[in-house]
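User: Hey, my collaborator sent me this sequence without any context and asked if I could get a structure. I don't really work with proteins. Can you help?
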Amino acid sequence: MKRRTFVLTSAMASLLAACGGNKSRFQTYNGPEVTYVIVNKGARKMYLLNESKVIKEYDFVLGFAPIGDKFFEGDGKTPEGTYYIDRRNPNSRFHLSLGISYPNAQDRAEAKALGKPPGGDIFIHGQENPLKKNKGDWTWGCISISNKEMERVYAMVQTGTPIQINA
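Assistant: No problem. I've predicted the 3D structure and written it out in structure-token form, which is a compact way to encode the shape of the chain:
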């Protein structure tokens, strides 16, 4: 008996999702503009603000070495300081993601002084596999929330939004 292999194209997948009533991961948001994001690493709390008013609060996990500032690529730390959301990735392998403008000039200088590359690709993102419950801090320095939460954050936070990451 011959085994048949079927290839599911993205168009077919979209059609199947539409027929199955699956909810899109791309939400709309019509509330107050998110003008600032604050991340408190120690408390594991992320706040989306409109001016000084908290609109939404999220719990998150960090890199595998969460304490301290990021100094070089591969250290598993999340940077600390003032950055901004510099890109949006709808095709992230971690569901959806928002890029953080790390490294800045100071970050590059600190890494250079250590003779190491600063790294990059620091994001707020969802989960790679939502069925697998990650235990504790597991990213390589990113800020990870659930996929459902990431869909909401992705809709609310726009490119150019400042983000303050605190210890």
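In plain terms: Confidence is low (pLDDT under 50) at residues 3-21. You can pass these tokens on to your collaborator as they are.
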